[in-house]
Automatic annotation (TrEMBL):
SUPFAM superfamilies: NAD(P)-binding Rossmann-fold domains. This is NAD-dependent epimerase/dehydratase. It comes from Actinoplanes oblitus. Pfam families: Epimerase. Residues 8-250 form the NAD-dependent epimerase/dehydratase domain. Gene3D superfamilies: NAD(P)-binding Rossmann-like Domain.
């Protein structure tokens, strides 16, 4: 008799990261419940058995409905407000309800719904490398002390701490994967990337100058969205080995943003046939944080050793895919 594939519940399945994870899961012989406020888009060539559940998880009782019967939960819910996915104003209670409150709800459901002798619910949480705060050194390896500076990072850390405390109690078997600067789009993308790289791609496509809050030498560890999706699925496959702590994800390479944006300008010019836009340094806005001006590269060797994950898409190729997608949005064939 064939074994029933595990049920993976993907929270935030219509979002930027979640939709990419859904595409990755769809290639595998598993059962997936894709949970989100907007209907998730199921790939037409999916091998997985996919159920779409459209609910607002902030409503009472919805978390229990969403994770009923789950073997594994991948928590990719993001609070989105304004032009970016991560800037959160101090004291933003709506953001706190989504970022921290939903993790509390998940823990409560796991605690109350676990049958005697049943294995704990396995959970993969999408954290952020920026939770550490202002980087004490350029290369981060996960041994740093967390001192989050902004509200987004404080809320992410609070959610992660809640989940790992529940792991310590035996309520869940949980890990947090702290994501780097994630970016990108491609021909199968169904959700818009609102991060700074794609934002500047869209500026260039619109013929507007690309702007930076520094001189362009600040380095970032940039990982393409499809590689991040593969990493989160790998984490779900290795929850037991990863459980009980947070793990940093990154490529191991920091690239100066000035170089990234110059490449973007050239790629957009090649796609559109127009002259490349300028890449300019401008004064930072009032909401800029100290971390915006510090270089960050991530040593993810610990995560790689456990999961075998490696990024597959080189930066230049990832940028080219993103530019082509954004041009296609504006000039559909």
């Amino acid at each position: 008799m064939a074994l029933t594939p595990p049920l993976i519940v993907l929270l935030g399945a219509s979002g930027f990261v979640g939709s990419a994870v859904l595409r990755e899961l769809a290639t595998r012989p598993v059962r997936v419940r894709a949970v989100s406020r907007r209907p998730a888009v199921v790939p037409g060539d999916a091998r997985a058995e996919i159920e779409v559940l459209t609910v607002d998880l902030c409503e009472p009782g919805r978390m229990a409905e969403a994770v009923a019967g789950a073997d594994i939960v991948i928590h990719a819910v993001a609070y989105i407000d304004g032009v970016t996915t991560w800037r959160v104003a101090d004291g933003d209670s709506a953001a706190e309800r989504v970022t921290v409150g939903l993790v509390r709800d998940l823990v409560d459901v796991a605690r109350s719904g676990r049958a005697d002798g049943a294995p704990p619910l396995r959970v993969v949480f999408t954290g952020a490398a920026s939770q550490v705060g202002v980087a004490p050194r350029e290369v981060l390896d996960g041994t740093e002390t967390d001192r989050p500076a902004g509200e987004y990072d404080r809320q992410k850390l609070a959610a992660e701490t809640t989940l790992l405390a529940a792991h310590a109690e035996g309520v869940v078997e949980a890990t947090s994967i702290r994501l780097p600067t994630v970016f990108g789009s491609g021909p199968r993308s169904t959700a818009r990337d609102k991060g700074v790289v794609s934002l500047m791609v869209r500026r260039a496509v619109a013929g507007q100058d690309i702007t930076m809050w520094h001189d362009g030498t600040v380095r970032r560890d940039l990982v393409y969205i499809d590689d991040v999706a593969r990493a989160l699925v790998a984490a779900a496959e290795h929850v037991t080995e990863l459980a009980g702590r947070a793990w940093l994800l990154g490529s191991g390479h920091g690239t100066p943003l000035g170089e990234v944006f110059a490449t973007v300008a050239e790629l957009v010019a090649a796609e559109t046939g127009k002259p490349p836009v300028a890449v300019l340094s401008v004064p930072p806005p009032a909401n800029a944080e100290a971390g915006d001006f510090r270089s960050v590269t991530i040593d993810a060797s610990a995560f790689r050793a456990v999961t075998g994950w490696e990024p597959r898409v080189p930066l230049d190729e990832a940028l080219a895919r993103t530019v082509a997608h954004c041009v296609q949005e504006v000039e559909p064939s």
